[in-house]
């Protein structure tokens, strides 16, 4: 039994990333996406490694793949390792290479999904196939899941799996997936590796103001448009109070250590904004997750300048912290006032996973073994992933898709961005780290 991935795995991860990119799984949220060819591709590679993947669909063509790798310790909790198969749209005219070419040029794999997240799908496949060749088994059972529909509602993907196929995830207490363990260059020579241990919740709101419809030239004491405008203004101007969650507290303490700063998030009067100010670009890792937020994004009302409409509608993109939903609701009640109703147009839970656990320590150790210069920092994601759906099964989610990228390679800008690409070296690093973590987890 080898103690790390074999050489063929390093070739395979590049080939699989490229070939998965070539299978166009664009998800526009209109139901037209077909993940099935990508799912069949992944399932065939798993079957070659001696696993028994199940193909699961709620809607024809919207295919998910689930397989279990048996661990050596039957008493250990299982670990879910998941990646989505769909990608966001790409406009070929804007790109330097065709977004679905999967071209490998000068040591870089190009195309939609190169970092979000066919790279991770390929790394998972490369690792388990390497284990089959070398007779390696992980300690814990691993449940491998490749999902459909993450880039839209997840109703055909992780939501469907969690609701209808819970049995496949039996024993899973923790999960890993996208948006973590990537290189964050801070511009001062430090290389941070943020591992996600939480996600803000999503609260997309619909505001409805009602009033008295009438002629625009008459006195109107119940104008829906002005009522709505006032509420939207109050929401947009609201300064949400700082609420430090355990994940963010841990991040602040870790960052204080790295930068030689003082930070006691528990001390009365601790000024998080002043602290973030001192962090420079690194503040971006923490800033979106010290408060709830609510940004007005859409307005709809009226049809003629001399007619007062009876109704006016606005939409607001709200996000709340783990533990922050109740405060979010009561604050919205106050900000909208008696003349404007609000409701959740779409809602997703906030997540929080502990960072003082053996699993987190093993993720940290796996990263620093291959990136000794790296400084691991827990962080909370400002948006969401499939981990939200799997949390219904009691699975605590972490963002752990290891990639080491050079300075100047703006990894985060490539998420859903133009010219999405990933260096071959980054894939090799990720495969080694993932292998180390999964076999020791
Ligand atoms: Zn993603």
From TrEMBL:
Q: Which cofactor does it need?
A: Zn(2+)
Record keywords: Hydrolase included?
yes
Family annotation (Pfam families): M20_dimer, Peptidase_M20
What residue stretches are annotated with the Peptidase M20 dimerisation domain? Answer: 198-325
The reply on keyword Metal-binding is: yes
Please name the GO terms that the record assigns under molecular function. hydrolase activity; metal ion binding
Keywords in UniProt for this one?
A: Hydrolase, Metal-binding, Zinc
Which protein family is named in the record? Belongs to the peptidase M20A family.
Q: What is this protein called?
A: Peptidase M20 dimerisation domain-containing protein
Give the organism, scientific name: Streptomyces longispororuber
Which classification does the entry list for the species?
A: Bacteria, Bacillati, Actinomycetota, Actinomycetes, Kitasatosporales
């Amino acid at each position: 039994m080898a103690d790390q991935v074999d050489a063929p795995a390093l070739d395979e991860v590049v080939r699989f990333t490229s070939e998965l990119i070539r299978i166009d799984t664009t998800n526009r949220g209109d139901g037209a996406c077909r993940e099935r060819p990508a799912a069949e591709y992944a399932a065939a590679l798993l079957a070659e490694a001696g696993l028994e993947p199940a193909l699961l669909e709620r809607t024809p063509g919207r295919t998910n793949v689930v397989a279990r790798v048996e661990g050596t310790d039957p008493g250990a909790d299982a670990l879910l390792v998941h990646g989505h198969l769909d990608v966001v749209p790409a406009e070929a005219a804007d790109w330097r290479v065709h977004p679905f070419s999967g071209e490998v040029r000068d040591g870089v794999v190009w195309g939609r999904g190169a970092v979000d997240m066919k790279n991770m799908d390929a790394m998972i496949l490369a690792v388990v196939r390497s284990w089959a060749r070398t007779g390696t088994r992980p300690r814990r059972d691993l449940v491998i899941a490749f999902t459909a529909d993450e880039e839209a509602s997840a109703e055909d993907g992780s939501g469907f799996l969690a609701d209808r196929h819970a049995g496949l995830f039996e024993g899973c207490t923790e999960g890993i997936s996208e948006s973590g363990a990537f290189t964050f260059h801070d511009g001062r020579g430090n290389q941070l590796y943020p591992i996600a241990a939480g996600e803000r919740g999503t609260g997309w709101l619909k505001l409805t103001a009602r009033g008295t419809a009438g002629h625009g030239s008459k006195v109107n004491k119940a104008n829906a448009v002005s009522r709505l405008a006032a509420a939207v203004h109050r929401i947009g101007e609201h300064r949400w109070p700082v609420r430090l969650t355990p994940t963010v507290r841990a991040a602040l303490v870790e960052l204080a250590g790295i930068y030689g700063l003082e930070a006691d998030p528990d001390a009365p009067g601790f000024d998080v904004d002043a602290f973030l100010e001192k962090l420079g670009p690194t503040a971006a890792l923490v800033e979106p997750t010290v408060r709830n937020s609510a940004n007005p994004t859409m307005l709809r009302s009226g049809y003629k300048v001399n007619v007062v409409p009876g109704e006016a509608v606005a939409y607001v993109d709200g996000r709340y912290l783990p533990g922050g939903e109740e405060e979010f609701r009561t604050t919205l009640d106050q900000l909208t006032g008696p003349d404007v109703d609000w409701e959740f147009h779409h809602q997703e839970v906030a997540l929080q996973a502990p960072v003082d656990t053996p699993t987190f320590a093993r993720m940290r150790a796996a990263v620093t073994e291959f990136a000794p210069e790296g400084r691991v920092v827990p962080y909370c994601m400002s948006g969401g992933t499939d981990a939200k759906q799997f949390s219904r099964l009691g699975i605590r989610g972490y963002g752990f898709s290891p990639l080491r990228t050079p300075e100047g390679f703006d990894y985060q800008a490539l998420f859903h961005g133009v010219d999405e690409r990933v260096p071959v070296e980054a894939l090799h690093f990720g495969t080694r780290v993932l292998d180390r973590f999964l076999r020791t987890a």
